[in-house]
Write a structure and sequence with these properties.
This protein is α/β, with parallel strands linked by helices. Helices cover 32% and strands 30% of the residues. The longest helix is centred in the N-terminal third of the chain and has 18 residues, at 14-31. The radius of gyration is 20 Å and the shape is globular. The chain starts with a strand and ends with a strand. The structure holds S-adenosyl-L-homocysteine.
């Protein structure tokens, strides 16, 4: 029988989340144990991150007390709950259903590839990075990519690559393109590199744009890395992030997009369309396509 897993969860600012993560690693080192698994993710409607810490078996109360103290979180209103084994299984299986978006077929490694000449198989396991094709926004971007065959972008940026799913999808469509896949989260970049290997994509070093086409992965916050100047400007920028950062990043995204280039945006709700659209129209871009999926939206802009 497997051990019960306890989950501690709560909302924290980005800075506090990172502080807790660092404290968890340091303290585990002092205790001489493996650190409890910590994950955090941005939330769609609040700037606070959702943080989860998983303990296998009983929670060591001394550890927890020391951890919260080290991270200055003595008054943090967290929740602690035991996860029934059953839930784990159904949750993980739910995450692992294959997804179809146009020609793309995204599935876990335990599923077979789908046969067919026009099928583009992508293997992505549910794990530590966002993007198994399950989410409406990932699906929307894949679907838009699927309809862009006539377009031949030489350089592509996938900003906020998560699991690397969109970068890999673009690589399958445009074998000769140089693709840069970036994420603010180093774990996502690691996961992307693993997925690139798993999917036998051509890997490239960042900045090495002459060594043949392929995908390079980089940890970066927005455009905060000199590599963008070497890799860009891009004929296609894909950014499935969140409405807030999409608005903030509009000038940078514009600067790194070629004239005649396209910008694919997702991660926004239908209700956030105007604020996001306005930011890109203000840069002189024109809306070319929009795709709703439930309450989520994917937009495609063109830069004249
Ligand atoms: N492209 C994937 C993942 C989308 S989730 C997909 O479509 O499924 C959004 C990703 O953007 C997360 O992995 C998050 O870490 C990353 N992200 C958020 N803000 C960012 C920023 N300012 N710069 C780069 N990446 C960012």
């Amino acid at each position: 029988m497997s051990e019960t897993v306890w989950r501690l969860s709560g909302d924290l600012s980005m800075e506090k989340s990172l502080k807790l993560e660092a404290a968890n690693e340091q303290l585990a080192d002092t205790y001489g144990i493996f650190p409890p698994t910590l994950s955090y993710f941005e939330q769609r409607q609040t700037p606070l991150w959702r943080v989860e810490l998983f303990f296998a078996g009983e929670v060591d109360q001394n550890y927890l007390k020391d951890l919260l103290k080290a991270a200055d979180l003595n008054d943090w209103p967290y929740e602690l709950e035991a996860l029934p084994d059953q839930d784990w299984v159904s949750e993980s299986q739910k995450l692992l259903h294959p997804v179809e978006a146009g020609r793309f077929y995204v599935h876990g490694s335990h599923d077979e590839d789908k046969a067919g000449d026009d099928i583009i198989n992508l293997t992505v396991d549910a794990g530590q990075a966002f993007g198994t094709g399950q989410h409406e926004t990932t699906w929307g971007c894949l679907k838009l990519l699927d309809g862009m065959e006539q377009f031949k972008p030489a350089r592509i940026l996938d900003l906020g690559t998560g699991s690397g799913v969109l970068a890999m999808g673009a690589h399958r469509l445009w074998k000769d393109s140089n693709i840069l896949a970036t994420d603010i989260d180093p774990i996502a970049v690691e996961v992307t590199r693993e997925n690139l290997k798993l999917n036998k994509c051509d890997l490239r070093r960042v900045g090495d744009t002459d060594a043949g086409a392929g995908v390079a992965a980089l940890t970066a916050d927005g455009f905060g890395d000199s590599a963008f100047r070497i890799e860009g400007p891009f004929e296609l920028v894909i950014a499935n992030i969140l409405a807030g950062p999409l608005v903030q990043l509009a000038p940078d995204i514009d600067r790194f997009t070629t004239h005649g280039g396209k910008v694919m945006l997702s991660g926004l709700l239908v209700t956030q369309e105007k604020e996001v659209s306005d930011a890109y129209i203000a840069q002189g871009m024109k809306l070319a396509e929009r795709l709703e999926n439930g309450e989520w939206l994917a937009l495609l802009f063109e830069k004249p």
